């Protein structure tokens, strides 16, 4: 179980993000979640797309450098304390989170939190054992 995240390495220049989103739009790709981290010189765009392989192919053809990573997507209630409860499970289980970002699932009252975990398999097992809903797609 789990989903693939696409990381796109970008120069930190005007219009570069626009080029990525246009490339994906032209290929008929719908973004389900998006996050960007940057420095003065470059950025790492992280996306979850509805058609991962097609998105990677379109981006690579357009000259972008990409990488696919296994991530865990967890559905939580969109209420105060839901994320804290989930984070406490990781703390108690000694699972290190490398980074996370979230997406509203489109379903009222729900959100999806995407995690890159140091130990992907252990994290998935713990979440399944604790009855968290893991998403293969959202």
Explained architecture:
This protein is an alpha+beta fold and 138 residues long. The protein folds into two domains: 3-70, VC0802-like (2-Layer Sandwich); 73-133, ACT domain (Alpha-Beta Plaits, 2-Layer Sandwich), CATH 3.30.70. The chain contains four helices and seven strands. The protein has helices spanning 16-26, 52-61, 82-93, 120-129, and strands at 3-11, 31-38, 42-49, 65-77, 97-104, 110-117, 133-135. Strands 1, 2, 3, 4, 5, 6 and 7 form a seven-stranded antiparallel beta sheet that branches. A hairpin with a 3-residue loop joins strand 2 (31-38) and strand 3.
Kindly summarize this structure in a few lines.
By secondary structure, the protein is of the alpha+beta class. The chain has helices spanning 16-26, 52-61, 82-93, 120-129, and strands at residues 3-11, 31-38, 42-49, 65-77, 97-104, 110-117, 133-135. The chain folds into 2 domains: 3-70, VC0802-like, CATH 3.30.2130; 73-133, 2-Layer Sandwich (Alpha-Beta Plaits).
